[in-house]
Design a protein that fits this description.
By secondary structure, the protein is of the alpha+beta class. The chain has 22 helices and 8 strands. It is extended and about 95 Å long.
């Protein structure tokens, strides 16, 4: 019996509807996602890449109350109904330039309405430049260990081998390569590798050069001269039981009391888990809030941060070039393209600021009780879907807008996403935020008897007694998010 499979190729034309985002829309989304510092960098890049864009010199704003209030909030630039299709057809440039001039005025007014828009004095600029020049770079872990290796190596061969091994330590100070791999790559013997590695394990910070956490802790105690201590014996012989807090079993095996084990565990807790992190730059993330709240007569004034954000406009030089009949069609088309790109950039920056203001306005309206209270409670349930419906945006747009952005409030600086929480039903039919439930859970765990820690079932009952309906699996989930161990691991003896 023969099976045949005949394949025939043919061309079939289908009509498919797809959604394509224009370059302008893609740019608007990218700008919306950028925090203020990255936005400043992006604008500087655009100034370099687009010759028709120029930065307007900073001018002294007229005396007025700082801040961007609801009445002073800038309106989106006025456009004709066919403006969204402007890039798809020829544009009358006289009309186009009028729009650009109007947009410049609106953008200038918007900057004048922000508190941060002010000229810095020459003395302040000199101080800032001095501080920037004074910033020094911290020594990295590899540099510190290499310097110690150069001083302790007995000969040039040991020095080279030590630097080779140091190059295989991660940022935590742990050896990432197997000894056999190091032997093969360096063409050195196992004994030579071990000897140099033991030398590195005596370097600062204490604990570097270990292959795992157990060895890291042993190295630290060894360098402290505590190889005969109970803590050393526990780590060496009973590390797995220690991780599971099986103190009675460890006490029986070592023929000591549980109290002795507890004291040794307290000593172990003082050791460093990631010694490499003690050295080198900390990669500090500097937070510059995109929004600031100012208390005024029991209410809040919303200020969108535009500190030193360049104010852009289309250069008059290129505008005049468009009216010059002597320029070639290619040059005219190039300038026209760049003017469109610059115009859209200015509009999208304006729209980003307006979007942030609208979202902040809704957050303040919902979370006003929390912002006015002195404690950590009072946060109301709020979802991105709710805000999106009110401000007339898509939920994904709200998500992009609040990503990696912060707000400066009288209670401190918070990420914008902090104010978005799901709702937990109360016994009286009301709602509280999930963050409030987490706060209650942490409070109960902090106040529990360490000798008799609360189980998840007990925590559920106590939270329900406070009027909040919550399931056991939810408590377990929130407990993990808060970094609270299970009850049997929280128990002390």
């Amino acid at each position: 019996m023969e099976l045949r499979l005949d394949q025939v190729q043919s061309l079939v034309q289908k009509q498919v509807i797809t959604i394509m985002m224009s370059p302008q829309m893609q740019q608007a989304i990218r700008l919306l996602q950028l925090p203020i510092l990255e936005l400043h960098q992006k604008i500087e890049e655009e100034l370099v890449q687009n010759p028709v864009l120029e930065e307007v010199p900073v001018e002294e704003p007229p005396p007025q109350e700082p801040g961007l209030s609801a009445e002073a909030a800038p309106e989106p630039p006025a456009e004709t109904p066919d403006d969204s299709h402007a890039d798809a057809r020829e544009v009358d440039f006289e009309q186009e330039f009028n729009k650009l001039a109007k947009l410049d005025d609106e953008w200038r007014d918007f900057f004048r309405q922000t508190a941060a828009y002010s000229r810095r004095s020459e003395e302040e600029e000199e101080k800032r430049a001095f501080l920037e020049r004074s910033i020094t770079r911290d020594e990295t872990l590899e540099e510190k260990l290499s310097r110690q290796m150069m001083l302790s190596a007995a000969n040039e061969e040991q020095k080279k081998l030590g630097l080779f091994i140091i190059g295989h330590l991660d940022e935590n100070g742990f050896l990432t390569a197997d000894i056999d791999d190091l032997t093969r790559m360096s063409q050195k013997s196992f004994e030579e590798i071990e000897q140099v590695l033991k030398t590195i394990q005596t370097f600062e910070p204490n604990g570097v050069g270990a292959r795992d956490l157990q060895e890291c802790l042993l190295i630290q105690l060894r360098n402290l001269g505590k190889t005969d201590s109970l803590a050393y014996r526990i780590i060496e012989k009973h590390f797995s039981e220690l991780a599971k807090k099986r103190f009675p079993k460890i006490a029986r095996d070592l023929n000591v009391t549980v109290e002795d084990i507890q004291e040794a565990v307290e000593e172990i807790a003082k050791l460093v888990r990631r010694p490499g992190r003690l050295i080198g730059p900390e990669n500090t993330q500097y937070v510059v809030p995109d929004i600031a709240l100012r208390r005024e007569d029991g209410d809040f004034e919303i200020v969108v941060n535009d500190d030193r954000l360049p104010h852009l406009r289309i250069s008059d030089f290129y505008r005049k070039m468009m009216s010059d009949n002597n320029i070639s069609p290619e040059v005219r088309e190039y300038i026209k393209e760049k003017i469109h790109a610059g115009r859209w950039l200015i509009k999208n920056i304006h729209q980003r600021q307006q979007t942030l203001y609208n979202i902040a306005q809704e957050i303040v309206g919902v979370q006003k009780g929390f912002l006015l209270s002195s404690g950590s409670g009072g946060l109301r349930p709020l979802t991105m879907h709710q805000v999106a419906q009110i401000v007339g945006l898509h939920e994904s747009t709200v998500s992009r807008a609040i990503a990696n952005k912060y707000i400066d409030t009288p209670k401190g600086i918070f990420p914008l996403k902090y104010f978005f929480t799901t709702a937990i039903e109360t016994n009286d039919g009301g709602e509280v935020s999930s963050r409030q439930v987490k706060h209650t859970l942490k409070e109960l765990a902090d106040k529990e008897d360490p000798l008799r820690p609360l189980s998840d079932e007990a925590l559920v009952k106590m939270i329900n007694d406070r009027g909040m309906r919550i399931a056991r699996r939810t408590v377990a989930k929130y407990r993990k998010e808060l970094g609270i161990l299970p009850s049997h691991l929280r128990k002390q003896f």
